[in-house]
């Protein structure tokens, strides 16, 4: 008896024997057709099962049978691996996505300015001091409080202008300047309040005291007109009638004059003294040379005396005469005669009147 031939072949459908089919055995016989097709399928399945078993054995024996997958232990991903984004408050061993990290970093930065939104920038801002808080605390301990500070050493501050009148701190320079402005060049004997107080007689009402004292004094501008009893005042001075005469006036020059006030028998009179000099304009010898002149001022009432003297510069050897004649309240005439040639006479005069 022979065996059916087997081959790995899969044909859809199994032949169904019909009642009309003859009974034919042997290779390709109709009676063996169903068994032959099933044998093919069986062989096909066995070959595939053997191949699968061998592949599984290799898979199980391989160190990394699934290269397209990452291992659970220490996986190394490639490409752009993705995972669900945890909630921003998540704090577990769940994978963190870039979105989760960005959200957490944004919450950490929380709108910080661009110059201070990284740890490096913050470190630089803190002077790279890992004990910044302690450093600042110790530094603050050396500072004075704003409220009632008790400073030590030699504290300094900006010096305000002298016009400032606020709560700004006053430095010693400001105080010195203010005191200098107050003293303003006062003499050393009066450059302190104590000295000024002593000078004022320690009188807190010095101004009122002086005002009250001045109220009993005469006004200078009144020139004595405000003296209640002028007669008694003059008597007390002991000047007699002379005090009523007045003040002398005049012109101290050449020509010149002096008006001298006098009291004569209780009547005020002015004694007037005038003087001058003049040169004879031309001389004719052995003749009367005449030259009229005017007094510096007019005598109001009369002229009472007139004298003269001449000067030629040399002693005349021949006859010479000089006189002043025809005197009036306004002037007179000089008459000069000589027998000597070459003289240039100058006459000086004094006239007295009232």
Automatic annotation (TrEMBL):
Family annotation (InterPro entries): Gp53-like_C, Phage_Tail_Fiber_Structural
Domain Putative tail fiber protein gp53-like C-terminal: 271-354
Superkingdom of origin organism: Bacteria
A matching Pfam family: Gp53-like_C
Name of the molecule in the record: Putative tail fiber protein gp53-like C-terminal domain-containing protein
